[in-house]
Each structure stands twice: as C-alpha cells, then as structure tokens.
Amino acid sequence: MNYSISNNAEYGEYVTGPRVINEESRWAMREALKNIQEGKYAKQFILEGQSGYPEMTAMRRINAEHPIEKTGEKLRAMMPWISANKIVDKTKN
User: Fold this and answer.
1) Which of 9, 58, 69, 74: CA 20 to 30 A from 50?
2) CA distances (Å), 93 to each of 16, 17, 53, 65, in order?
3) E strand segments, the chain
4) Model pLDDT for residues 39-50, shown as the tens digit of each residue
C-alpha cells in the first residue's frame, strides 16, 4: 500500500506506527471483533437506533464543535469544487 501514499505518510508509518499499533491497540481490536462476532455490537446499534440515535447524535454534535472541524469548514468554503461534487448530504444523514 505504501506506493499509493505520500512520502510523508509512509515516513509517519515507520516512525509513529509502532507507537500507535501495539499490543494495547491489538487487544482493543480483538475485543471489537469479538463484540461483532458475538452480536453485541449489532444489539447495541439496534437499541441505539430504536431510541433515535441519542448517543451518536451527541457524538456528532461534539465532533462538529471540534476546532479541526471548524477549520475544515472554513477551508472547504474556499474550495467551490468540493461542494460541486459533494458526496455527503448532511440533511439526509
């Protein structure tokens, strides 16, 4: 995959990757997979949906207020070609 990413991203993989992908993150991924395989995630998601997605809605609101999102919004507004090819309609999701 490294041939299709920038040199910056590839270098970051080498110097940062081992600190991010380690035994703790592997454990977390195993737990996530176990929850999926046992159906726990699906049950939790279904209950979230049945109650109108309160947790997901709250997380979206918190994420939207993050400074990086505010900056991204300003930057995208300066790039009209992005909105012309918009693939996400936030009014529908």
Assistant:
1) 69
2) 34, 33, 12, 17
3) none
4) 999 999 999 999
SS3 5: coil
What's the one-letter identity of residue 31? E
CA–CA dist 55, 39 (Å, integer): 19
Residue that the structure tokens 């990086």 belong to: 68
Handedness of CA 5, 59, 33, 87 (dihedral sign): negative
Angle at 34 between CA 21 and CA 25, to 5 degrees: 15
Could you report the per-residue pLDDT of 3-38, keeping only the tens digit for each?
A: 888 999 999 999 999 999 999 999 999 999 999 999
> Where along the chain do its domains lie?
1-52, 53-87
Q: What is the identity of the amino acid at 54?
A: P
- Would you say 66 and 60 are in contact if contact means Cβ atoms under 8 Å apart? no
Cα–Cα separations (whole angstroms), residue 6 to 3, 9, 13? 8, 5, 11
Tokens of 65: 């207020």
